[in-house]
């Protein structure tokens, strides 16, 4: 998959990178990719397709959130969703996700309403930021998405962060379990005809949790550094004694 550098999305991403809205920090991201596979993606796609066929139940083969998995187009959709996550979050591995870990959205209006509600406070910051507030934040977001993906021609999916199959997002398995996350959403807009996929995610992070995490990380770093210095000193002393 190839990352698509879209100036409109870059402008929005720069704003959504870290928006202070009082008790929360809002962090969002929009990334678009071409679904034309090559190299490692192509190799991984082939192995994933085999694993999906082998691990899917008869009911999933006939019906799933991405379509019947006996259909190669449905399997491709699932693989594109997985590969997109792998590209955006390279420190995590999503290859164990399957069709039941995603949900197909039927109402774009419902998505837009939820996004508007979540970004309400961030939108106020956008309006007061010089050079950005000429149009409402959500208008800019949806115009940018439509420009890249053509909403009228796209299917929309989201990752299910907890489901009956036993999968639950946590800090070790993927980034959506990040401590301090008060709310979050993630949507995949897939235009099969254009062979493009756009990912839109956002989360509201508790400031107190972020500060606690930074303090903990700092303390851990200091402890590790002190341990390394003590080990270096011990090694140096041993070398001196040998001399």
TrEMBL record:
A GO biological process of this protein is: negative regulation of transcription by RNA polymerase III
Q: Where is the composition biased (Low complexity)?
A: 54-64
Name of protein: Repressor of RNA polymerase III transcription
Per UniProt, which keywords does this protein have?
Answer: Nucleus, Repressor, Transcription, Transcription regulation
Region ranges (Disordered): 49-68
The source organism is: Auxenochlorella protothecoides
The organism that produces this protein has a lineage beginning with: Eukaryota, Viridiplantae, Chlorophyta, core chlorophytes, Trebouxiophyceae
- Family stated for the protein in its record: Belongs to the MAF1 family.
Instruction: Determine if Transcription is one of this entry's keywords.
Output: yes
Localization recorded for this chain is: Nucleus
Q: Which PANTHER family would you find in this protein's record?
A: REPRESSOR OF RNA POLYMERASE III TRANSCRIPTION MAF1 (PTHR22504), REPRESSOR OF RNA POLYMERASE III TRANSCRIPTION MAF1 HOMOLOG (PTHR22504:SF0)
Give the molecular function GO annotations: RNA polymerase III core binding
One GO cellular-component annotation of the UniProt record comes to:
nucleus
Task: Give a yes or no for keyword Transcription in this entry.
Answer: yes
- Fetch the InterPro entries from UniProt: Maf1, Maf1_sf
Report the superkingdom from the record. Answer: Eukaryota
